[in-house]
User: Fold this.
Amino acid sequence: MRKFFKGMSVATLVFGLLCTPVQAAGVDNGKILDDVNKTNEQIYNMIDKAVSKSYKENKDPEKIAEDLIKKTDKRVEVLIKKAAKEDIKIEKEYIEVTIGDKVYLIDPIRTLGD
Assistant:
C-alpha cells in the first residue's frame, strides 16, 4: 500500500510540474520571474523531500505536511510582497500533494501580470 501512495505522490508531483508553469501576462521584469521560477523549484524540491520523509519510519505524515505548508506559505508570501513593490501580481496556485495517506494543498505560484 505504501508503494501505491508513493507512486501517487510522485505522479501528483510530476503532474503539478507539468500543469503549473509560470504564466507571465505582459510582465517584463525578468528578476521577479527568475525569483518565481526559483521559488517554485524550491517548493517542488521541498514537496519531494516531504513525501520521501513521510515514508520513513517514525515520521508523522501530518507533522511533515504542516511543516511543509508553513515553509511554502512563508516563501510565497515573501515573494508576493516583493512583486507587489514592482506592481506585479502573483497569486498562489494550489496543487494536491499526497503525504502519507492524506492529500494536502501546497502552493506553487504564478505571475498574473502588472
